TrEMBL record, chain A:
Domain ABC transporter: 12-268, 315-572
Protein name in the entry: Dipeptide ABC transporter ATP-binding protein
Organism per entry: Paracoccus aestuariivivens
Membrane topology, record value: Peripheral membrane protein
Family annotation (InterPro entries): AAA+_ATPase, ABC_transp_ATP-bind, ABC_transporter-like_ATP-bd, ABC_transporter-like_CS, Oligopep_ABC_C, P-loop_NTPase
UniProt keyword terms in alphabetical order: ATP-binding, Nucleotide-binding, Transport
UniProtKB/TrEMBL annotation, chain B:
Keyword entries, A-Z: Cell membrane, Membrane, Transmembrane, Transmembrane helix, Transport
Protein name: ABC transporter permease subunit
Pfam family, one: BPD_transp_1_N
The species this protein was found in: Paracoccus aestuariivivens
Transmembrane segments: 9-27, 101-124, 136-161, 190-210, 248-274, 294-320
Length: 641, 331
């Protein structure tokens, strides 16, 4: 820490910041004596898990902490005068601090969806920030705002000015948010998880924008994030926080090369990454004891059917299509001629017994719809979904009555949100035994035994059965969700974004648990995720979806190291790697996805009327391309992995 | 937007039709009709009955025709602005209701304004000063306001007005103006009387509305966009007035649908106790005496007002809330 101290030119210095909240008994310390600095024109990353106090630090700098918070320490901000100003010493919400907010310090947040008021236009909210600090006429303000909107990447700023926030996509909203934070030309931008809620390709674009603004305008950025990949790509300096305290701070390259603190080392090992290194078993920060899996395997009394080579696939989809009508159209009095949105468009793929098939794609690519079709939450418009367990052959889309009941015990789903997927009014024991009750499995005593075995298998104590879901943490709840899916001893489990709502350290626990369960219980997984690092860790084969179509499928190593389809390549190129020596291709990220499509090689472009097929490249590697194109015409297959 | 409006207007037709059938059926449900109970009453009093006149009226209003025919005459009459004949008052319904309707509307509008003017600042203060002594005090007063029934408040006020000031606070104006045409003196008399029923009827509404505004605002105050607005450097009061308050307004507008019919029916029980010349007591009397056209037309009128009120609030909501107005555009 000493090396940080004698720097005269810090833009922002936080010294011994302490933020505490009064509780009924005693107090809760959110930030415990944290000190950090931000150099002018540089990006400083504040890294930590949720609950580490990093967001609270960011808010307190601006004086935006909750009213009950008790704050001490100093926040020194350089305003160009001889002495820096102590922001904490200013009256709360007073004139002085309000002149700093929005003018000298801008802030952007994680949720671009809720950060704007939905009732006011983008232009209204944007020019408000400008005219508050720089009194000027409406027309002048509009002009300045449109220039700024154009700068953050809107092709038609005049139109965006009059749009409402909900008319923009998440990435576009985050751009508008950046425009609003930077409109007065602040010297510091506090970005609180600015890309966490976005798709990878959009994330890369937003990161590129922040980097550009920083370099162009000498903007200093305090980047609050948990994503080490983002940090490695963007930050000049890193500050690592854990339980309200600063664990480690220093230049990015140095810290990544030689992390000193065991916490940071642990954090790095807990994150799944791309490449061969990403297949080494993750080491969670806190291991969970889960020894009951073998016992559960014995109890579930399933004949162990191993995957025989050359066996028929467990599930096979053929030309599956599902379209939705836009909601207001299906309600309209007058029938409309609006086109239905095709969520899944002619998808054919096989899932073999005992494997884990990763399904990746951006939001809106139709991957969750595929998952819903597989559990028969939806029925396909056309095509077949055949479930073949070696004894019976059932079409999932057509099954009725008893066949459907039986199918429901064979195929289970684990959800993304561990909070809303468990009923808050049922005890964990009831939640776990409900599937058994519904399907009348065994005697009540046997059910109770099975519930206990399930709890032991996921690393919870038997006492958990009588508690309610709200008394568990997010990771524990997700484990309960897994146990619920396992209760009926299914063969096939669909994991829909199971770790995206969880913290990095917890994520590793869940992924390891899923892997262990798969091995011991001979499960087959369909693993849906937008996080390529996670899919790389879990999947044996990977399928890539784009706008409802399957564009590429193949063994993991081939997809990860030698992707052929330009969309797969773009997706992989957009993943930030936690290694400063392998930066993102920022130039590529600047081109919006829609435009990039025009630059795809002719063989992959989707042209109406020209037939396409899944071309076989050998080794189970298929790619969607035009019938007339030849696989050997393709650009070099190998890329640096 | 125009298509939406057109569709909404179109769907009002079957709605009103179903309501009219229901109203008619309900009025026809009790055995007998107005004439039977009237004749019976006269006989009990031992007065001579003019059966001839009754027969004329019966024939004129098709009382002997089957129910569907009577329904048909009633509905088509209403479409022409003829709401039928009040047998009890021996006058067309239009004339019976006429004057009272305007008095009721006036009283209700003043009540609503009173409610809003009081409820808004109270709700705003309670929400922005949550768990302060001021908030607790206003909450306490509000809960009392909600819990005490109107008529009780009316009786208490009447009692104390009599004991302390020796005046009677009944009626909506001084009795001598009752049947006189509208004039300055009459208006002054009305204004000097109207504040008592307004206070009585408005108390519970004010308290309820302040509580709802407080709850809605508290939901909104914790939202991310409020933090965004503060991070821009807006002053706390401007933040609250521009963003969360605007969001919290939606439920006020959604309320218009239920306010309109309430304006006309006008707090019946209180009106009876205070002997107010509003429509509330008349409706109750008409229902009791099976004065079928008066009651039926009245109920129909209330139903139509509800339907129109919901339409008005839907249109206002879509004008004020771009999410409702524009969401359909993107699909």
């Amino acid at each position: 820490m000493d090396s940080l101290q004698n720097q005269p030119h810090d833009l922002l210095r936080v010294e011994g910041l302490k933020v505490a909240f009064p509780l009924l008994r005693g107090e809760l310390t959110a930030v415990d004596g944290a000190s950090l600095r931000v150099l002018p024109g540089k990006i400083t990353a504040l890294v930590g898990e949720s609950g580490s106090g990093k967001s609270m630090t960011g808010q307190t700098i601006m004086g935006l902490q909750p009213v009950q918070a008790m704050v001490s320490g100093r926040v020194l901000f350089d305003i160009g005068k001889a002495e820096p100003l102590d922001l904490l010493g200013l009256p709360r919400d007073g004139r002085m601090i309000r002149a700093i907010r929005g003018d000298r310090i801008g802030m952007i947040f994680q949720e671009p969806m809720t950060s704007f008021s939905p009732l006011h236009t983008i232009g209204n909210q944007l020019s408000e920030a400008l005219r508050l600090h720089r009194p000027m006429s409406r027309s002048e303000a509009r002009e300045r705002c449109e220039t700024m909107l154009a700068r953050v990447g809107f092709p038609h700023p005049g139109r965006v000015f009059d749009l409402y926030p909900f008319e923009l996509s998440g990435g576009m909203r985050q751009r508008a948010m950046i425009a609003m934070a930077a409109i007065c030309g602040p010297s510091l931008l506090i970005a609180d998880e600015p890309t966490t809620a976005l798709d990878v390709t959009i994330q890369a674009q937003i990161l590129a924008l922040i980097r550009d603004l920083q370099q162009e305008r000498g903007l200093a950025v305090l980047l609050i994030t948990h994503d080490l990949g983002v940090v490695a790509n963007l930050a000049d300096e890193i500050v690592v926080m854990h339980r309200g305290q600063v664990m480690e701070a220093g230049p990015t390259a140095e810290i990544f090369r030689n992390p000193q603190h065991p916490y940071l080392r642990g954090l790095m090992q807990a994150v799944p990454v791309l490449g061969a290194k990403g297949r080494v078993r993750l080491r969670p920060l806190r291991e969970i004891p889960a020894q009951g899996i073998l016992e559960l395997a014995r109890m579930s009394q399933q004949p162990v059917a191993m995957r025989a080579p050359g066996a028929r696939p467990l599930v096979s989809l053929r030309d599956v299509t599902k379209a939705f009508l836009p909601r207001h159209q299906s309600w309209s009095l007058i029938s409309s001629n609006a086109e239905p949105v095709t969520a899944v468009d002619g998808v054919s793929l096989d899932i073999f017994r005992g494997e884990c098939l990763g399904l990746v794609g951006e939001s809106g690519s139709g991957k969750t719809t595929v998952g819903k079709l597989l559990v028969r939450a939806l029925q396909p418009d056309s095509g077949s979904i055949i479930f073949d367990d070696g004894h019976d052959v059932v079409d999932i889309g057509e099954a009725e009555g008893k066949a459907l009941d039986a199918l429901r015990t064979r195929i289970q789903l684990i959800f993304q949100d561990p909070v809303s997927s468990l009923s808050p009014r049922m005890t964990v024991g009831n939640i776990l035994s409900e599937p058994l009750d519904v399907h009348r499995r065994g005697t009540p005593a046997h059910r109770r035994q099975l519930v206990m075995a399930l709890l032991r298998a996921i690393g919870l104590s038997e006492g958990a059965a009588s508690r309610f879901p709200h008394s568990f943490s997010g990771g524990q709840r997700q484990r309960i969700g897994i146990a619920r899916a396992l209760a009926l001893a299914p063969e096939f489990i669909i994991c829909d974004e199971v770790v995206s709502a969880l913290d990095v350290s917890v994520q590793a626990q869940i992924l390891n648990l899923l892997k262990d369960l798969q091995k011991e219980l001979h499960l087959t997984y369909m693993f849906i995720s937008h996080d390529l690092g996670v899919v790389n860790y879990m999947a044996d084969r990977i399928a890539v979806m784009w706008r409802g179509k399957l564009v590429e499928i193949g063994p993991r190593d081939l997809i990860m190291e030698a992707p052929v389809h330009p969309y797969t390549r773009a997706l992989l190129a957009a993943v930030p790697v936690p290694d400063p020596s392998r930066p993102l291709d920022i130039a590529a990220a600047r081109t919006p996805t829609a435009k990039a499509e025009a630059h795809w090689p002719a063989a992959f472009r989707e042209v109406r009327g020209q037939p396409v097929r899944m071309a076989d490249l050998g080794g189970g590697h298929l790619v969607r391309m035009q019938v007339l194109a030849e696989p050997h015409d393709l650009p070099s297959r190998r890329v640096v992995g | 937007m125009l298509r939406y409006l057109f569709g909404r207007l179109l769907i009002m037709i079957p709605t009103l039709f179903v309501i009219s059938v229901l109203v008619f059926a309900i009025i026809e449900l009790p055995p007998g009709d107005y004439f039977e109970s009237y004749v019976q009453e006269l006989r009990m009093l031992g007065e001579p009955t003019d059966l001839q006149e009754i027969e004329t009226l019966k024939a004129r209003y098709h009382f002997d025709a089957p129910a569907p025919v009577r329904y048909w005459h009633w509905v088509t009459g209403m479409l022409h602005g003829d709401f039928g004949y009040s047998f009890e008052y021996r006058m067309p319904v239009n004339e019976v209701v006429g004057d009272r309707l305007w008095l009721t509307v006036m009283m209700s509008v003043v009540t609503i304004m009173f409610t809003w003017l009081l409820a808004f600042p109270i709700g705003l203060y309670s929400a922005t000063h949550q768990y302060s002594w001021g908030d607790y005090g206003l909450t306490f007063l509000g809960l009392i306001g909600i819990a005490v029934p109107h008529f009780m408040l009316a009786i208490i006020l009447m009692y104390f007005a009599n004991v302390w000031f020796g005046i009677s606070i009944g009626h909506i104006m001084d009795v001598e103006y009752l049947d006189q045409p509208m004039g300055w003196d009459k208006l002054r008399s009305i204004l000097s009387h109207i504040w008592i029923p307004v206070l009585i009827i408005g108390t519970a509404g004010t308290a309820g509305m302040a509580r709802r505004l407080r709850a809605n605002l508290l939901d909104e105050l914790g939202k991310q966009y409020v933090v965004t607005a503060r991070a821009k450097g807006l002053s706390p009061s401007r933040v609250v007035l521009k963003y969360p308050l605007r969001m919290a307004l939606n439920f006020f507008i959604a309320d218009i649908g239920s306010i309109l019919p309430a304006i006309i029916s006008g707090a019946e029980v209180t009106a009876i106790i205070l002997s107010l010349e509003t429509t509330g007591p008349m409706l109750i009397r008409a229902l009791q005496s099976q004065d079928m056209y008066l009651a039926g037309s009245f109920l129909m009128f209330l139903a139509a007002l509800t339907v129109v009120g919901v339409l008005v609030s839907d249109i206002a909501l879509s004008l004020l809330d771009p999410r409702i107005r524009l969401k359909g555009r993107r699909g």
